[in-house]
Amino acid sequence: MLGARLSVLSPLLLAASLFSLAYAVFALARVRAFARQRPRAAAGPPVTVLKPLRGAEPGLYENLRSFCEQDYPEFQVVFGVRDPQDPAIAVAERVMRDLPGRDLALVVDDRVIGTNLKVSNLANMYGAAKHDLLVIADSDMRVDQSYLGSVVGPLRDPAVGVVTCLYAGRATGGLWAVLGAMFINDWFLPSVLVARSLQPDRFCLGATMAVRREALEAIGGFAALGPYLADDYMLGVFMNRRGLRVALAPCVVENSVWEPDFRTLFTHELRWARTIRTAQPLGHAMSLVTHSLLLSGAYLLVSSLSILGAVVAGGALVLRLGVHYTVRASLGLREPGRAWLVPLRDVLCFVVWVASFWGRTVHWGGRKFAVASDGRMSANGGHHSC
Fold it and tell me: Which end of the chain is more exposed for a tag (fewer CB within 10 A), N or C?
C-alpha cells in the first residue's frame, strides 16, 4: 500500500519541484530586469504626502523625516493619528519642529468611516491635503530624496490611475526582525515582479500609492476602501474597473522591519497571507510551487535519495541562494545576506502558507477581524483601541 502511494506521489513531487525551479529562474530574471531600469526622477506638479501613523516603532523619526527632505519643488506632508494619546504624535511634532521651513501638518481625529482604521485615518487627513496629486505611504518606510520625483512621474500618463512601489526589508531588531526582512526580500519582492509580468495592471502595494485626487474621488474616495482588509489591492481593482492602469515606479523604498518576538512576526505574516488569499485565492493556492527547497527535499526523500532527487534538491538550493543574494546585489539593499537562515525562513514561510487556509480571521492594530470572501472586514472581538 505504501509503495503504491509513493509511486503516485513521487512523479507529482518531481513535477512540482521542476516547476518550482522554473519559477526561481523566472524570478531571478525579473529581479535583474527590474534592476536594469533607471529611476526617472523629475519635477512635477505639487504633491501632498499622507502619512498615517500608529505607535512609535523604532526608527520612526528617521522614516518620517526622509519624506520631508525630498528634492522636489513643492510638496506637503500630512501626518495623521487617530488616538490623541498615541506616542507617534510626539515624534511627528519633533519632525515638524526640526524642519520649520517645510509644509508639514498633523491631524488628530478618531472619526471612523469603515472597519479598516488605517483608511479612516487617511480619510480624516484628506481634508488637510492642499494638492491634487496624493502620495500615501506607510509609517515604516524610508526613502531617498529622489522618491517623490520617481513615484509621481508615471502619473503623467493619463492611462495610469495609480502608481505603486516595491519595497525591501531592513531589520531593525534581532532574529525575528531579520526573518521578517528576509520574507520581504527573498519571497515577497520577487513574487510581486513575477505576478506583475503576468498581470501587469493589477497589483497595488500599500507601501506607496500615488493617485490623482479626481481619480480617487471618481471611485468613491477613501470611503470606498473603508470596508476592505486589502485597501491597496482594492484601490488597484477600482482603478482597473475605470479602465486605468496600475504603474510600478522604477525605484525601491526601504521598509524598516521591527518584529520583537515570534508571535508578532507570525501574526503579521499570517495577516499578509490571508490578505493575499482573499484577494487572489487561486494564485495563493498555486504559490505552493514557490517552496522549492521543501518540495525538492520531499521528492529526494520519496525517491529514496535517488541521484535525480539529489540533482533536483541541489538545483533548488543553488537557485534559492541565488535569489537570496541577487535581490540584495541587484537592488543595492543594505540588508546583508544570511544564507544560514534560509532553511529556517523557508520552513516558516511554508507553515504560514498552510495556516493561511485555516480560518478567515486576522489580527491587526490590536483588533481581531473576520474577513469575508470578498475582502470585507467585520469586527470580531478583541481590543478596540487604535
Answer: N
What is the predicted pLDDT for the residue at 202?
A: 74
- Our count of domains for the chain comes to 2
Q: What is the pLDDT of residue 174?
A: 92
Q: What range defines the domain where residue 327 resides?
A: 2-34+280-377
Enter the pTM of the model.
Answer: 0.90
CB-based burial, 329-361: b 16+ in 10 Å, e otherwise: eebebebebbeebbeebbebbbebbeebeeebb
Dist CA 189 CA 175 (whole Å): 20
Q: Is residue 55 domain-shared with residue 29, that is, in the same domain?
A: no
* Residue 158 covered by a domain: yes
Statement to judge: residues 156 and 256 lie in one domain: yes
Confidence of residue 73 (pLDDT cuts 50, 70, 90): very high
CA 152 to chain centre: 19
pLDDT the model gives residue 7:
64
- C-beta separation of 262 from 176 below 8 A: yes
Report which residue type is found at 68: C
Q: How many CB atoms lie within 10 A of CB 160?
A: 20
Residue type, 8: V
End position of a domain, from candidates 260, 290, 317: 260
The mean pLDDT of 317-326, rounded to a whole number, is 96
Q: Residue 156 CB: number of other CB atoms within 10 A?
A: 10
d(CA 280, CA 299): 28
**Of 215, 230, 260, which marks where a domain is finished?**
260
Arithmetic mean of pLDDT, 290-316: 94
331: closest CA among 265, 261, 251, 262? 251
User: If you average pLDDT over every residue of the chain, what do you get?
Assistant: 91
Q: Please state, in angstroms and rounded to a whole number, the distance separating the CA atoms of residues 131 and 128.
A: 9
229 and 91 share a domain? yes
Q: Are residues 348 and 318 located together in one domain of the fold?
A: yes
For the domain that residue 47 is a member of, what is the CATH number? 3.90.550.10
Bridge-based pairing state of the strands 133-137 and 208-212: antiparallel
27 and 44 housed in the same domain: no
Distance (Å, rounded) from C-alpha 365 to C-alpha 363?
A: 7
The larger pLDDT score, comparing residue 57 to residue 266, is at 266
